[in-house]
Write a structure and sequence with these properties.
41% strand, 0% helix, single chain, Immunoglobulin-like, mainly beta, five-stranded mixed sheet, flat, 2 domains
C-alpha cells in the first residue's frame, strides 16, 4: 500500500468523490497488471480547500485528500522500476500524473509452486475511495450509540470466501438516521506474525437508512481469504462501523486449507 495525497491548487474549493483507477508506467510502457476500474459512487464527497500548500504525506493537512494505492502479490512485480503513477479520476474527470523516485530495474520473481516460470498470473493494482486527510473528530454526545455482533464460522479456508453476518442494534430510545450510508472496515489475519488483509466498503443501507429505537438490522458480509495463506490456529477477524465506537467486533479465527 502507498498513500497518495492530493491538494487543491486553485483559488476556490473543489471536491473529489469516488475511487480512482490506477496506472503504473515503467518508462513509457504500462506495467503489466490487473488494474481496478474507477468507481464514481464509492465513498463520500471530500471537499478540497484552496491554498493549503503542496501535498504533504508527512503530516495531516486539513483541506487535503488522500487515497491508498494498493497492489496485490502476484507473479509479476509491477512496482520495481516504476517511473510514473497515474490516477484516473472517477467519472472521466481527468488524470493526475505523479513522477516516482528512481528505483531498481524491474525484478523477475523466482519460480515457485504458486508461481511457476510460465505462470500467466499478474499483480492486482487499485485504490481506495478518496478520503479527507484529516477526519473530523466525532462528537461523543452527538454520535448515536450503535452496537454490533457477528454471526460467523470459526474457520476460514484459504482461497475461498469467508462469509458472515453483522447485526447492528440501536439500543437507545431515539431513532438513528444515516444521511449517507457509513463506511465499514473488515479484516482477517493469520496470527500475530502472520499475513493480514483489510477491506473497506460502504454499508448497503440505502433502502433502510433508518435504525429505529431498540431495532436491529442484519447485513451479509464476505471477504476472500488469499489462496497462499498457510494453516493457522491463532488468526482473527474484525469488523467496525466507522465513527461508531460501539459497533466494533473482534473474534478468533482458524485459517484452514482444503485437502
Amino acid at each position: 500500500m502507498q498513500a497518495v495525497v492530493v491538494a487543491n491548487r486553485g483559488e476556490s474549493p473543489c471536491g473529489l468523490k469516488g475511487r480512482p483507477a490506477i496506472r503504473i508506467l515503467v518508462g513509457t510502457n504500462l506495467a503489466p497488471a490487473s488494474y481496478g476500474d474507477p468507481d464514481p459512487a464509492a465513498g463520500h464527497l471530500v471537499v478540497l480547500a484552496p491554498s493549503t500548500g503542496a501535498p504533504d504525506a508527512s503530516r495531516a493537512v486539513p483541506g487535503q485528500a488522500w487515497t491508498w494505492v494498493t497492489w496485490g502479490r502476484g507473479c509479476t512485480v509491477v512496482w520495481a522500476g516504476a517511473s510514473t503513477l497515474i490516477l484516473d479520476l472517477p467519472g472521466g474527470r481527468g488524470a493526475l500524473t505523479i513522477a516516482l523516485p528512481a528505483s531498481a530495474a524491474p525484478a523477475t520473481p523466482a519460480p515457485s509452486a504458486e508461481c511457476p516460470k510460465d505462470a500467466p498470473y499478474l499483480s492486482w493494482v487499485g485504490a481506495w475511495e478518496f478520503q479527507p486527510r484529516v477526519m473530523p473528530s466525532p462528537d461523543p454526545v452527538a454520535t448515536p450509540l450503535i452496537t454490533a455482533v457477528a454471526n460467523a464460522p470459526g474457520i476460514a479456508v484459504a482461497g475461498e470466501m469467508f462469509e458472515f453476518q453483522v447485526t447492528l442494534t440501536n439500543p437507545t430510545a431515539a431513532d438513528v438516521h444515516f444521511a449517507e450510508c457509513p463506511n465499514f472496515t473488515m479484516w482477517i489475519t493469520a496470527g500475530i506474525d502472520g499475513e493480514a488483509l483489510t477491506e473497506r466498503h460502504q454499508l448497503n443501507c440505502a433502502h433502510v437508512p433508518d435504525l429505529p429505537a431498540h431495532v436491529s438490522r442484519t447485513f451479509e458480509m464476505h471477504i476472500r481469504v488469499p489462496s497462499d495463506w498457510s494453516v493457522a490456529r491463532t488468526g482473527a477477524f474484525g469488523w467496525g462501523l466507522e465513527r461508531y465506537a460501539g459497533a466494533a467486533i473482534k473474534l478468533p479465527l482458524i485459517i484452514a486449507r482444503r485437502a
